[in-house]
Amino acid sequence: MIAPLKDSSIVMTTTLTVTTSTTQYPVIVGAGVLATLGDRLTELGLRGTLWLVADEHLAAVAEQTTTMLQAAGYRVHTITVPSGETSKSFTELHRLYDWMIENGIERRDAVLALGGGVIGDLAGFAAATILRGVALVQLPSTLLAMVDAAVGGKTGINHPLGKNLIGAFHQPRLVLADTNLLATLPPRELRAGWAEVIKHGVIRDASLFTALEDLAATRGWNAAHPAGWNAADAELTTYLTEIIARAVAVKVAVVSNDEFERGERITLNYGHTIGHAIEQLLGYRLLHGECVAIGMDAAARIAVALGLCPPALVERQRALLAAYGLTVTIPDETDHTAILRLITRDKKVQAGKVRWVLPTTIGQVVVRSDVPIEVIEQVLSSSAG
Ligand SMILES: NC(=O)c1ccc[n+]([C@@H]2O[C@H](COP(=O)([O-])OP(=O)(O)OC[C@H]3O[C@@H](n4cnc5c(N)ncnc54)[C@H](O)[C@@H]3O)[C@@H](O)[C@H]2O)c1
């Protein structure tokens, strides 16, 4: 278990490093770290104009950040982007290109993405492609973006025919995850983010999973979650920030081992095979993390059916997901045949084979392409009640 800090007034900062064959960059997690942005950019040698792309819900933070960076001597252009998945579009991308080109962007400049995964993906893709690529800094503001989307260099937009179909790998120069930003995040978005944190525990870090269990059992987090991030409880905030840093460390380790998804990176897809299909079938009525929670439960039950893990794993995972406000029941209106059809069309299918990420124990998964269709059908029709 992670020991609680003695002095909760100390702002904990964790610095991790992504190291790939092509690059290296820091990922910094802490409460209040956004205030250090100017100094960190200077340390990285980023001295050109800054192009701050912010989610409209973070307009006030963007304004403060702009003022702070200007005081540090930077020239800053700021633009806000409408909130929501529909902004990962050619239209919004085009608007960013116009703004950058009309205002004279240069190769030495940097794009700063302030927002959730939508802004990170959109601004990241603009940075990857404008002038054949300029520096990118990720300033994630959702739990999902902190522990997943902002780290690893996947950027992109949606095509009318499918999500994330247009994109590029473009690693950021810096990721600064300020957990204070979570104070304004809607509780439902926060819960969806916890699904990804729990996922990271299952795929690679049993002690993270246990820390989440301990927290739910002993620190009243279970009772607190409907209210969202409790910024007034400094000790809890510090503790959660430490847990988030652990979850980020899983992503950092995975992408450091496998930058271009040729091996281990597929394990981050745990819960996503069925999760994605449900997300799509329900017309995005459920959040991504909510669908991942359902998909994790289904994947664990597939693992049990194949004799890869004991049924107790399913129960333990279910209990933890429930403690963080996540349900695992496949919604009644979801057509199982349609789920199966979508699964085989998923982007991650290789040579016609669906690659399932399945747990063997908490903290370890295997990738299997030989799951019989009958097992999947059986798991879908015996969804948790
Ligand atoms: N690049 C990757 O590796 C990767 C990985 C996972 C997901 N993604 C992408 O990430 C996207 C989902 O990201 P998300 O869950 O962060 O969603 P999001 O970016 O849509 O943000 C969720 C909502 O929270 C609001 N918001 C964000 N930060 C806030 C804050 N601090 N206070 C108040 N409101 C805030 C946003 O306006 C939005 O309404 C998807 O497009 C997905 O494809 C990318």
TrEMBL record:
Annotated Zn(2+) binding lies at E196, H272, H288
Does the keyword ATP-binding feature in the UniProt annotation?
no
Q: How is the cofactor bound?
A: Binds 1 divalent metal cation per subunit. Can use either Co(2+) or Zn(2+).
**Broad class of the protein's primary localization:** cytoplasm
The UniProt GO MF terms for this protein read: 3-dehydroquinate synthase activity; metal ion binding; nucleotide binding
Question: Which superkingdom, per the lineage?
Answer: Bacteria
Q: Where does NAD(+) bind?
A: S83, G84, E85, T86, S87, K88, G117, V118, I119, G120, D121, K154, K163
| Span of domain 3-dehydroquinate synthase C-terminal | 193-349
Signal peptide positions on this chain: none
Q: Which GO terms describe its cellular component?
A: cytoplasm
Which cofactors are reported in the record for this sequence? Co(2+); Zn(2+); NAD(+)
CDD domains linked: DHQS (cd08195)
Per the entry, what this protein does is: Catalyzes the conversion of 3-deoxy-D-arabino-heptulosonate 7-phosphate (DAHP) to dehydroquinate (DHQ).
| Similarity remark | Belongs to the sugar phosphate cyclases superfamily. Dehydroquinate synthase family.
HAMAP family reported for this sequence: DHQ_synthase
Q: What is this protein called?
A: 3-dehydroquinate synthase
What's the source species for this entry?
Answer: Chloroflexus aggregans (strain MD-66 / DSM 9485)
The gene coding this protein: aroB
